[in-house]
Amino acid sequence: MSTQDPLRSARAADQKKMALCESCAGIQRNWRRAPGHAELVQTTTRKEERSDGDSGGHTVNVTSYRCDRCGTRWEYENDKTNQQAGWSVVGQ
């Protein structure tokens, strides 16, 4: 008998439903300075605080985009202190 984490199963099912177009599938996620593609349309920009531990914090820009081809919603976090910031899928 196999026990599966229901949350993990639901998350996997949601990801299967999201069909990224070829251009979106080619975006390198979670890597700062990775390029997007020409069909991403900027929607909003906001500033968020990030903690630097004992040295305080800093503000980063988070820009939201929507792909005109497949409808995928993306966010790009521009955090110069975090190389793993960058593109992430936030919905469709």
Termini distance? 34 Å
Main beta-sheet strand count, sense and barrel state? 4 strands, antiparallel
Low-confidence stretches: none
- SSE order: HHEEEE
Based on DSSP secondary structure assignment, what is the total number of beta strands?
Answer: 4
With helices defined by DSSP (H or I, 4 residues minimum), what is the helix count? Answer: 2
For the CA atoms, what is the radius of gyration? 16 Å
The computed structural class is alpha+beta
The average pLDDT value, as a whole number, equals 86
Classify the helix fraction into a percent range.
10-25%
Characterize the overall form. globular
Strand order of the largest sheet: 1-2-3-4
Number of domains: 1
Which percent band covers the strand fraction?
35-45%
Please give a structural write-up.
With 92 residues, this protein is of the alpha+beta class. The chain has one domain (6-91). The protein is 17% helix and 37% strand. It is built from two helices and four strands. It has helices spanning 6-17, 22-25, and strands spanning 40-51, 57-67, 73-78, 87-91. β1 (40-51) and β2 (57-67) form a beta hairpin. The longest helix has 12 residues, at 6-17. The chain is globular and about 45 Å long.
